[in-house]
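Reviewers asked in the last cycle whether our approach scales beyond single polypeptides. To address this, we selected a multi-component target totalling 666 residues and predicted its structure end to end. The input consisted of the following lines:
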Amino acid sequence: VVAVDANGADGGPELVAEGARRSGVDVLLFGPAARMDGCAGRVELIDAPQGIGNRAEPARAVRATPDASVVQAARAVADGRADALVSAGSTGATLAAGLFHVGRLRGVHRPAVAVLLPVPGRPTLLLDAGAGVEARPEHLVQFALMGAAFMGAAHGLERPRVGLVSNGEEAEKGPAAVVEAHRRLAGLGEGALEFVGNVEGGDLTAGRADVVVTDGFTGNVALKLMEGTARTVVGAVRGAIRSGPVSALGGLLVRGSLSGLRDQLDPNAVGGAILLGLRSLAVVAHGGASADGVSAAVRLARRAADERTVERTAANLEAAGALRSAATGTFGA
Amino acid sequence: VVAVDANGADGGPELVAEGARRSGVDVLLFGPAARMDGCAGRVELIDAPQGIGNRAEPARAVRATPDASVVQAARAVADGRADALVSAGSTGATLAAGLFHVGRLRGVHRPAVAVLLPVPGRPTLLLDAGAGVEARPEHLVQFALMGAAFMGAAHGLERPRVGLVSNGEEAEKGPAAVVEAHRRLAGLGEGALEFVGNVEGGDLTAGRADVVVTDGFTGNVALKLMEGTARTVVGAVRGAIRSGPVSALGGLLVRGSLSGLRDQLDPNAVGGAILLGLRSLAVVAHGGASADGVSAAVRLARRAADERTVERTAANLEAAGALRSAATGTFGA
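The resulting structure, written as structure tokens, was:
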């Protein structure tokens, strides 16, 4: 069973309900009952009209509104009524609700937001895409192991190749935290992780690694920059094609092929942001997701739970000796 | 007069010599005389066969090889025989030669590598693109003022809009150094700088600012990521067009328009990386630059010198009260 928060999507709770129905997955749907008529079959509706907006300070909002749909959905996971959490609302609120009610996986310093980059033909997982803004070496090491476990479980990759984002391929390139993380990752040994070394900005779209690890600041800037650059280039291509009559005629002939491309580059198709490092998986669909986008997010959460992503993550961290020791913890565990 | 280092370009010293000739600028050309026959007119040739490769540790190589072409070219600027420095070789070696022989501008903490992003229609200056890997708030403030002075001088912008790269628009978003830099930039007042606040990754290609400021690690990753993403998207467009006979026919009709687009997105056309914060301007043409790319770099250096970029930078820093005080300096000044 997947717990789904229906509030927060640009298309409204109706669209999320439709996506939940299409997924074919057993769903507990938390949202305004009045706007989700006709939920039946595999979708069970729980009336939870209150949402948490993007503008709110997430941790505070989650504490202040225990009845908010995303908080109720997180509690359903914590209680064992559901195995995974999906929201099309705020990533921050979903993360905060997950942290407070589902909790961090034992030994994890800090959860990370992971995103499948829309690279045609070969999905590449980028993390952290913005759960934090700075990362210590031990955070980066855990991100690497968490990302590898996810790509192994949910995407069936036998030995996901993991790269560390830096400003050069050499081990000594980058800020001190990156250099130290490189040293630790290289020291894990191939049994624990297939570490391919540093990857540069240009490698993120080139398929050099299946998982690319960075701090949340760089990851957030990189993700939005990729989207912006792709949008700008596609727009420039469209503008160039329309710039003259001969080329506009050619444009009619290439239109079909280019629309297929648009789907490949569409963040909706990939399933959303994945929160790793909690006691169960959470997926945040793109706020502008279509019903199919929501459906893909629900199915991804279901598959990740079936493939025991969280258990594999715990085993990976333990095998690599990368668990946070209780003594160094500041709160929770 | 512009001092040009002819070693290090992928196309060899011949190509750099040809670029220098095409620029129509008075040039002192440092390189292997045997490979640059026929230099005459406005190009004066100085035999300097030794180059510094990309693999060398720049500071060490510059000290160890005083006869290297880039070192001789930097000395020509220091001696007053030339007003600006151009190289198509290693950015690191050019920066090191500039630091040792030309020197930092008084009151500058650290020079920055600035790059004009190939955004169609509106050049956006990104800095630092990799002179350093970490940046303190005072560095980011100086980058903002240096970038604004350059865009004012070399691109004729009356009041360049300056943005600070972060993971959200709000002033409190980002790592501590970014939050503090935001506070200081906002406090400078509109007379000193047109600060538009934080810009996100997606804004870099959207023309929201004329100058975008970040640390050298993020800037390096962002620049290479933009290039990689543009390459991937253009490749995907090409592949999609070739995927069927109708669309391939259409492809023949749009080819002319798309080749114009390629020029707009071509880093060669923009002129190279610009080193800001030295006592004179230095430009590093892309290693794979064409002769026209080298020529554009030489003309950019000439124009920046004519427009007194360095003097304007010094005035900007002084007016904003952002000069490094002698007491906090660690060496030189």
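The first strand of chain B starts at residue 2 and ends at 5. We regard this as preliminary and will revisit it once experimental data from Aim 1 are available.
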